[in-house]
Design goal:
Helix content: over 70%
Number of helices: 11
Largest sheet: none
Distance between the termini: 42 Å
CATH class of the largest domain: Mainly Alpha
Number of strands: 0
Organism: Candidatus Woesebacteria bacterium RIFCSPHIGHO2_01_FULL_38_9b
InterPro entries: TPR-like_helical_dom_sf
Protein name: MalT-like TPR region domain-containing protein
CATH superfamily of the largest domain: Tetratricopeptide repeat domain
CATH architecture of the largest domain: Alpha Horseshoe
Low-confidence stretches: none
Structural class: mainly alpha
């Protein structure tokens, strides 16, 4: 846990940030402890947007647990938190949180390999999206991935490339860490998807992803994921 065992003097947002930092360091159990406390704090403050944001972080944390263990229980927990995000957004009429809620539901649907459902969620996330271009590119490339895995390969790849271009085009309006996460993630997915169909292009995306990961020491999770992906390639 954090060096300050007593978090009573911390705001919900500060505790939430501790959770986010722990998750980014691949310390998922610690992240969950902080996120649980932040949700309680947000509820006391009647900060429903904060609750939704913390649930989004928890959804991602459960997702990483699933990817590490292949235990469907974690996918179910991710699903419930994503559903709670959407339900709270609708209950409290927080239209600005609908996009993220649908996006997380799309991510969870992918864990269950429910590609059609994921496509519908990702499309809704883009309909409600009103943020910066680079994050819109992240949302778009996930839609492209879902389409590709749903055997709509040509259209899926086209959207992934467009998403990648948007991430780079809007890079000045987002922290470098997020741009690195989004671009490396998109390139790794392209490498994985194109490995058999277009092996040379797949390798190019893999190499570019590695360059990004090597330049940012904060990409701890990406580094682990990249090592696993690279094992599936032969150079």
């Amino acid at each position: 846990m954090h060096k300050y065992s007593n978090l009573s003097n911390y705001s919900a947002k500060e505790i939430h940030n501790l959770g986010r930092t722990s998750r980014e360091k691949d310390a998922h159990l610690e992240a969950l402890q902080y996120l649980d406390q932040s949700i309680i704090g947000y509820q006391k403050e009647k900060d429903y947007r904060g609750i939704i944001d913390a649930l989004a972080e928890r959804t991602i944390t459960w997702k990483h647990f699933f990817l590490l263990t292949n235990d469907m229980v974690y996918a179910i927990l991710a699903q419930k938190d994503a559903e709670a995000m959407l339900n709270i957004s609708q209950e409290k009429k927080l239209k600005d949180k609908l996009s993220t809620s649908f996006f997380r539901l799309g991510e969870v649907a992918m864990l269950f390999k429910e590609h059609t459902k994921a496509i519908n969620y990702y499309k809704k996330s883009l309909v409600y999206y009103s943020g910066i271009l680079s994050q819109k590119g992240q949302f778009r490339y996930h839609l492209g991935e879902a389409l590709y895995r749903n055997d709509e390969k040509k259209r899926g790849k086209k959207l992934m490339i467009k998403g990648l271009e948007e991430i780079k085009e809007g890079s000045k309006k987002a922290p470098a860490f997020f741009i690195h996460v989004w671009e490396s993630g998109c390139r790794m997915q392209l490498a994985d998807l194109l490995r058999k169909d277009e092996p040379e292009e797949a390798k190019k995306h893999l190499i570019e992803a590695e360059k990004i990961i090597k330049t940012d020491k904060k990409l701890i999770i990406r580094k682990r994921q990249f090592k696993e992906l690279k094992k599936t390639f032969s150079f």
